[in-house]
Amino acid sequence: MAETKAQGPAPLFRAAIAALKAGDPVAAQLLPGLDRHADFAPGWLALAAVLRDRGQVRAAILTLQRAARAASATAPMLHQAGQVLAQLGQRDAAIAAFQRAVALDSGLAPVWYSLGLVLQDARHFPNAAAAFGRAWTLKPDFHEAAFNTGIAWQQAGQMDAAMDAYAAAYRMKSDSFGRIAQALIASPTGALFLRPSALRAVLAAR
């Protein structure tokens, strides 16, 4: 397929993706040509989605990693790539994508939250708490960020900070009380309140 400077790489990616979706053998001829456009993040993201849908997981992972390294990748693109990498079990690559995203734009609460989730999964609990806390600071009504800040601080053994976060989550959504009570007994570092009213009083007082 002829490619002009005015068109850029987008038509080439579209053609390769269309051929891949259709099972057209021409895809095998078009895909190598994409290597000339290593920095075209949108194309690599779109290609990764198709590869994943076709069950070509390893190829999808490699393609997502190319998207996350691309110079043209924006913070939302990096967030998208990181989320899929995390779903595919590529935790370190996901962390790298999220960290690059927040370096480009530190004001995106959802990206900080996603970073917190993978750091928590990696058992980097203080760093996870900090990431969740940043998301919560950016979006003060972000209940899940506040709640997960509490869990991460609890997992780090910092119960005072955990209780402050749980109290904030409870103020945002009183119906999260059950989840908070369960979280407090689900970790080696926690607290057991024999009466729900006692826990409610502690949360209300903070």
Automatic annotation (TrEMBL):
GO terms for molecular function: protein O-acetylglucosaminyltransferase activity. TPR repeats lie at residues 75-108, 109-142. One of its GO terms (biological process) is protein O-linked glycosylation. Keywords: TPR repeat. The lineage of its organism: Bacteria, Pseudomonadati, Pseudomonadota, Alphaproteobacteria, Acetobacterales. Pfam families: TPR_16, TPR_8. It comes from Acidisoma silvae. Signal peptide: none annotated. InterPro entries: OGT, TPR-like_helical_dom_sf, TPR_rpt. This is Tetratricopeptide repeat protein.
